[in-house]
Structures are given as C-alpha cells and as structure tokens.
Input
Amino acid sequence: MKLLVVGGAGYIGSHMCKLLVNAGHEVFVLDNLSTGFRDSVKYGRLVVGDLADVNLLESLFGEYAFDGVMHFAANSLVGESMTNPAKYYRNNVSNTLNLLDVMVRNEVKHFIFSSTAATFGEPEYVPIDEMHPQKPINPYGSSKLMIERILQDYAEAYGLNSVSLRYFNACGADPEGEIGECHDPETYLIPLILQAASGRRKSITVFGHDYATEDGTCIRDYIHINDLCSAHALALDYIRSGKEQGALAFNLGNGEGFSVQQVIDVVESVVGEDGCSLTVETGERRPGDPAVLVADASKAKAVLNWQPAFADLETIVRHAWSWEKQLAGL
Output
C-alpha cells in the first residue's frame, strides 16, 4: 500500500514507519518537526510541513494516491493542555479536520487514529473497556474525543472508515536499536528513570506512596512500542478487508498494569548489570493522579487478532535501556 503517516518523525510514528516499510508498504511521512526529529525518519520519505497547510495537503494527495492515512501528529502533554488549551484544540482538532476534509475530497477511505485512554477521564472501574463512559478531564483528552466523534459523523456522511486506538503509556524502543524514545521535555516514567540511571538526570521522584495499591504507588498500563504499532497495522488491514465499516474503536494495553515501584525495581535490576544505579526521591501526590489506570484490550485481541509480543516488563525496560545507553554515550 501507499500510506501517509502524519507525525511520523515522532516516537510512535517513527516506529510505525519502520514496521510498515519492512512489511513492504510505500510510506510518506508528514511532520512539522515541532516535537519529532528528522533523524528519527529512517523509514519512509519525509515531507516537512504542517496539517494547517491545506494547500500542501491537497498537493500531496493530488500527487500520490494514498491507500490510507495514519495520524500521530497530536500535541499530547496533559499539563500543557491545561495551561494552553488553544494550542490543543487548534492542532488536535482543527488541523485534523483539515486532513479529514482533504481525505474526503480525494476519496481516501481508510484512517487510523492514534487516540488516547485520556478520553475516559477518571476511571469508574478498571480495567477500562470500550463501554466505559468517556468523560475527559483535560483539554488533551477532550480534543481526542472530539475527533473520535467527528470520525463517527464522517463515517455516516462520507463513508470514511476509521479505527481509533486508545492506550495509556507507550514505552520501550526498537529491539534492533535503530530508533527509540526522545521527548523534549521528557515526561514519561520509564525514560525518566533510565535517565537517572545513565547520569543524564540526577534522580527520579515518586509522587505518592500511600495509594490503595499493594506497594502504595500508582499502577499504570505500559505497552511496548512495537506491540502498539502492530495493533495499528492490524487495524488498517481490518478496515481495508471490508469486514466492518464505519468508525471503530479499540482499547490497547497489557491488561494488568505495573506499579511505579515495580518499574523502578525492574530498572534497578537491569541497569545494575552495567554497574549503574539510580537515586529515588519521594514526593507528594500529584493532583488528579488516579491510583490505577489499566486498559482492557480483549476486544482488540478478539477482533484484530492482536497479540502483544513484548508484554514482559523486563523486556520493555531492556529495550529502552539499550536506547538510553546510546543517547547517554555509555
């Protein structure tokens, strides 16, 4: 297939491009490089540009007969969305509408949307399945939910078939070490802990030890980046197969979750093999941090035949640590 991956210079998008190219597809990457990196585009043809540029979109779709589009080009920092909601609604909603409208005009019928479990808000029960009420508590989650609802309307009105994939924490790195996780600033737990182990950060802070969990720290759902990408590829195959039409949605996750302390313990074990250690500090709870956030991925497993290959936390950490050692020059 000939595929457009928007946000393909970012963490998830760059790994997605590698999977797609290795599967024999022709991949074009559209990225404005605001949070992505040119060096991360090792697979696919990079076009530097923005979804706000409708003329560029029309030119791309006019020149190439895309078979499908994958969207990873959202702004995704929850805290920033609270202080600068305009940025999130403009890029995550308005700019995505530009893309969808150009797709409709050019009769491109297959769209895979990287959504988020933040559309659910505070969990009413865990694990969170697709029937869980969607009540986002921040502009980031709201912006993603808006697109999910728009996709439902576009399916009805224009025959645009889509799959929205909702998940919490992408993690790990390419097992072959070609690409990995890079954010500036870094906000995700596993790379933060590994940076403390590699010496690129002084310490790691655990926010709260008094949650209603076995060890008192928050439990979160972690999914290996390659498993995440395989789900996106399977979703595209599924809607192209014609087995089901419309706007579909699946939750992705490991189904159990790991506590912050469990992650730290595994990291300490792995980095200790290289003679590294880390300093752990204790902080107060952060407002709005639920004790447990875990997704139920049974629907994706049943319908898409998705089976995570790297569900083991130690494997996730080892892949991420190999990448961090490259970044830190170890």
Q: What stands out?
A: The longest strand covers residues 26-31.
